Fold these 2 entries.
Entry 1:
Amino acid sequence: MPRPTQAFINLSALAHNLVIVRQYAPHARIMAILKANAYGHGLLHAANALKDADGFALLELDAAICLRDAGYRQPILLLEGFFSTEELALFEQYQLSAVIHHPEQIVMLSDSKYHKLDLFIKINTGMNRLGLALEQLPQTIKKLTGNQYKNRITLMTHFACADDPAEAESVTQQLKCFEAVTKGYSYPHSLANSAAIIRYPETHSDWVRPGIMLYGASPFPDKTALELNLQPAMTLSSKIIAIHDLKTGDRVGYHGLFQADHPMRIGIVACGYADGYPRHAPTNTPVLVNNQRSRLLGRVSMDMLAVDLTGIENAGLNSSVILWGEEVSVDEVAHNAETTSYELLCALAPRVERIVSI
Ligand SMILES: *Cc1c(COP(=O)(O)O)cnc(C)c1O
């Protein structure tokens, strides 16, 4: 029998979420973000479910080549561009699009024989992560569109705070900055991640770049995925592999972090932090046992965790446990563990079997 911890990947949920992106941004082209193995969902499965997207974007060159080899013909954007002249040859060969965010890349381009590429020039409008300084833009465009060049250009930036309802001013600032510096050029624009797609329609422009919303999690702390009409694409599921009846005072797991204050039944679930369940999830983090809400008890181990079976009808060996999915959202678990759904989804371990359903 295989290990009972499995991730069910729901392809129709992914396709549904893409439709929702289109509803939010009906006039933009959609670049579906597939980085980090499609946020843990599996690159080729996700690409297949999202094949109606107008483009794909990721950071891993081998994954981009894998998409081309699988027959996808839409633009495939590498979000950190290329790191060497050798890589540039692959961009040409596989017709990959590159983010240009650093002057060093412009030097590599001018020193190369590759002058007919699809380039997304990324501008630092305030996040101070990737992007050219504002004053570098005119000379960069001049250089990359000069005489011998036939590059296609798109201008892009990225928001630091679009997910934070208290930071609307920051988005407005970045947008204003972008508009000011790109005024006078007629190249297409790309700005919005999931949060901006939903909350700031004025940022949509030509290409939107949804990630987390495609996977059915919410980009916002104050809105659930359900409220946004998004469907979770991943269900992390396991089983109870041991049962214990605790007496008052009995302790559970490493460091005895949970202690029973009355007699109770607990179940041991075959899922731990080596599967991608967050070790920092505390007692009371919700789980679903036999389709009923229950809670985590004590410290999550590498391969197992404990759950409360109080009041759960018929719970026993092999009872189904859902760590996250529809009834208990990955956002809820992330919130309890003081992290984000992004981190939990992309931390799903390779040893967890992914089972795809349509
Ligand atoms: C990851 C990423 C996105 C997608 O962000 P979400 O918040 O998941 O929608 C968009 N743009 C860039 C540049 C990214 O790196």
Entry 2:
Amino acid sequence: MSCTATARSAEAAETAWQAEYHDALMPVFGTPQRLLVRGQGSHVWDADGNRYLDLLSGIAVNALGHAHPAIVEAVTEQISTLGHISNFFASRPQIEAASEVLALAKAPEGSTVFFSNSGAEANEAALKITRRTGRSKIVCVEGSFHGRTMGALALTSKAAYRAPFEPGVPGVVHVPFGDEAALRAAVDSDTAAVFFEPVQGESGVRRHPQGYLTAAREATSAVGALLVLDEVQTGVGRTGAWFAFQHPEIGEGVSPDVITLAKGLGGGMPIGATVAFGADVTKLLQAGQHGSTFSGNPLATAAALAVLRTLGQEGLVDRAAQLGASARDALTGLDEVSEVTGAGLLLGLELSDGQAKAVAAAALEAGYIVNPVTETRLRLAPPLIVTEDELLGFVRALPGIVADAAAQTASAEGAS
Ligand SMILES: *Cc1c(COP(=O)(O)O)cnc(C)c1O
């Protein structure tokens, strides 16, 4: 029996920690693949001492990788000084993190930030802003993912996620992906907002066709509706621009009314943000109309500030664009990859033979964490501190990994 076959049969039987996991945690996530104990830079280690190159970074979260000194210092100092207050009080990190987000977004005068704890919550706040237009129709895009709370879920297109929880929040329509005419036709005088991701993450790292953001801006402006961009996954340098709406190809120079952030913003500390662009959007939410105990929590905002400043000081956003381009070039030369999607360090790899799950499993065995985002596509969202050697090392290893996956699938089929 080969090593990999041993590993596979070991995987089939539940390990002791998996049994403990299932005894204690709600079964919503299925079975985790490894018990991780430590991270450093672009790598994590499991409880058996195996090292993995983390090309997913906790789903586009760990922008500075693991245990980055800037975050460790910021969080350690903050928790030792002032960990949590309430919104009866203010803190410097809260004010500075909000100001930094607004400056990086080049948001106009009168723009403001609401901090929350997750992407779903950032979208909930955005949804409440849209309701304050006095309208309730929201136009979303098929393939969208906006989170799992009831409002964010209503915006999410996958019926399997929504169906068990009906009735959901009413008023949401989903237009076919990539269809500019359908988008324009759906936006009318009842429309509060058009709400979508500048690059769809969960449906496979999909970019809208050229002209789509421009069309969305035109259609919303024409009827006085808001344009809300969910940048939970694409924001904070991920696409090689600070925010995807600023990316020269993706953003098309469009100014949104609201953007939402989370994932990369805290570099591992839970935080979300809803940014209202301009005084007119800001004033839609009045005092008392929204809130959260943890909103602007000093610890989370200190981490966000450390992330934003470190990305800026180390030029990691431009570097994400360059590294993404070289990874794309290298991947485009492989027979195993039929298409590379995305931008910067958010990449989708369409596999010539499909089988994304089997390839991700073989990659894990080979020491790489990648995500089978669809049946046929892998998602890479490495830390923005990943080195070119690390990233291109994976590209060089990929043909062998794909071959391993095919061999394992064949032997599993032979055995059954
Ligand atoms: C992950 C994600 C969310 C949800 O964020 P959570 O922190 O999981 O609530 C929302 N929108 C997009 C685009 C995402 O990728």
